[in-house]
Amino acid sequence: MEGAASVSLDYLPENILMEIFSCLSVRDLLRSSRVCKKWRRIVQDKKLWVHVDLSGYSKVSSKVLWLLLRRYLGSGLLSLSLRGQLGSLRKQGLLSPALLRALSQRCPRLRILSLTQEDLKGLGSYQQLPASLRTLKMCRCEIPLLFFQAAPQGSVRTGLEALVLRNVPSFSDSHLKSLASQVSLKTLVLSGTYRVTDQGIRESAESLAQISRLGLHGCGVSEGVLHFICRNMRRLRVLQLSGLPSLTGAGLSCISQLQELETLSLERCCGNGEGEGLLNPEVIVAACRLLPALGTLRLSQRDFGDPDAIGKVREGLPGCLVTSAPLPHPPPL
Question: In this structure, what is the dihedral angle of CA atoms 56, 99, 133, 118, given to the nearest 10 degrees?
């Protein structure tokens, strides 16, 4: 409108500018820092670099990471998400031992590290990751055979509490056994790790007694793992299972030992409920009635030949939320 005064962002208070900048991507933040000295100073504020997600950028190099680390990432950083170039022509991963040491020194509060398509074969052990880490997420990554080997005496050990793996085929029974024997995990989610078998769960279950959240999705396991899980992991509050089409009522009955279980998810576990001994609404209701703390039960309608199966389970468990909503991918912590 003619005569109207022009409005400039320079007149906005810095706290408003901070709110605006907090909605920007990393790329836009870096571009904004070139506008003027005031914006450069604001962009360098540690409050804007608490949760940094670079997973949307496929061409981030080690050089870019070093630049961010020297200029922007610091004591305020709590979570970092990165995407490597596994399968590309690049011969090494993003994370070198030197960069991880610098990350540990400059970002002592880093708690969550999420890696996608990263090649970790250049690292000798996960112990080279920052000792402050509590959650490690890996999707379509490559890890060496001895990645979770025990730490040498006198070295700093990470305090990992949560491990979430999605489509990491190199993760095997030996990895799980090594990790379980030295780290007090509270959350373990394995999705598409087909080299984890009944034997691996059996040999690791006792060391995983403190776990409160467990997810097994598309692993190389059978219903036999439930016996090891229920016998040793009595503190489980969340149990998510998918890809066990031969699960029977006898196998499910052992969950009665999980008296603290609050959430149970069964997807692709019922084999349409038509074979002898396979799950059906009556069997599921009978097993879940023995769980006093159960508040949420997730089932998949396609697992049942009867279109009213979910409704029958709801009728049998009036005090429990029975839902057929699918789990998001990757499954939540």
Answer: 40
Total-model pTM: 0.88
**pLDDT, tens digit only, all 333 positions of the chain:** 344 444 466 667 778 888 888 888 898 988 888 888 888 888 888 899 999 999 888 778 888 899 999 999 999 999 999 998 876 656 567 888 999 999 999 999 999 999 999 999 888 888 889 999 999 999 999 998 889 876 655 454 568 899 999 999 999 999 999 988 877 899 999 999 999 999 999 999 999 999 999 999 988 888 889 999 999 999 999 999 988 877 888 888 899 999 999 999 998 876 544 544 467 899 999 999 999 999 999 998 887 878 888 999 999 999 999 998 776 655 555
Report the half-sphere exposure of 153 (CA within 13 A, side-chain side): 0
